[in-house]
């Protein structure tokens, strides 16, 4: 139905639509929108005449109808320009699928992580679960709950990197065991705790202020030293050689009693003596022992009912022995040439 105010907007509407049709680039459309449809644009200000007319409703309807047609034409033209620009861009980025594929060389895993994952897999296969804990921990968990009270001589080589009077960078992952024992509330445990440890030490070919351990802990009824030996012997066979044997030598650790150093028969010379084992036929590989009764008591276990064993393996040491690496610092230097040497799996 015709509106008596339609003619007021016919001329300017035709003029704007003509400009839209004739626009050559996207900026032309932007200029048209700004000139005519902005707040103070030539078409927008026509709405101010509504104050001068008698039938404001009819005037508003005529204005809105004309504006709608202009905006629809403008938006349609905008879409045409965008579509054309996209087609041009797609042609520029077209891929010739007949071209030869660029060859990418797959990366290699640092031998540290290869050994860490293999150790975890071995113990997971024995029914152990993997536990993690904080690298910054309190004196309580790093020392006191492990039967190392303040001023104990065993602290001399480990009591080093403190944040404040109570917090320090853990010097062994045994602190994770202390957390697990406390939370277990007297229930059986069978865990390993892999992770980084920190001690003030001179960096040289065999020492680093940062190194990693995988410590294990088993607590249950009727656990004995024979269980520990069988576990570590199976680990040695899977980690080094199916012919590997182990031996225990008496030692001392404040959190185990009795404590032992564990040697594995040299996987290079099969125990005959070589440069790897320094002619002895044996290689020291880890420390272990039966959990000290005091440690059990402090964590809520009755040592008359429960017993357990613990062991600690240096990840870098195993990797150095496994691969013949002569310098512990190589693990942390991010030298691609070094890492690429270990791309192949070492077979038994």
Mean pLDDT: 87
Q: Numbering strands along the chain, what is their spatial order in the largest sheet?
A: 1-4-5-9-8-7-6
Which class of the largest domain in CATH terms?
Answer: Alpha Beta
Count every helix, treating DSSP H or I runs of 4 or more residues as helices. Answer: 10
CATH topology of the largest domain: BirA Bifunctional Protein, domain 2
Task: Classify the beta-strand content into a percent band.
Answer: 15-25%
Report the major sheet. Answer: 7 strands, mixed
Spans of at least 5 consecutive residues with low confidence = none
CATH architecture of the largest domain: 2-Layer Sandwich
N-end to C-end Cα span: 93 Å
Counting DSSP E segments of at least 2 residues, the number of strands comes to 9
Q: Which H/E pattern describes the elements?
A: HHHHEEHEHEEHEEEHEHH
Q: Portion of residues in helices?
A: 25-40%
Shape: elongated
Please tell me how large the radius of gyration is.
39 Å
Number of domains: 2
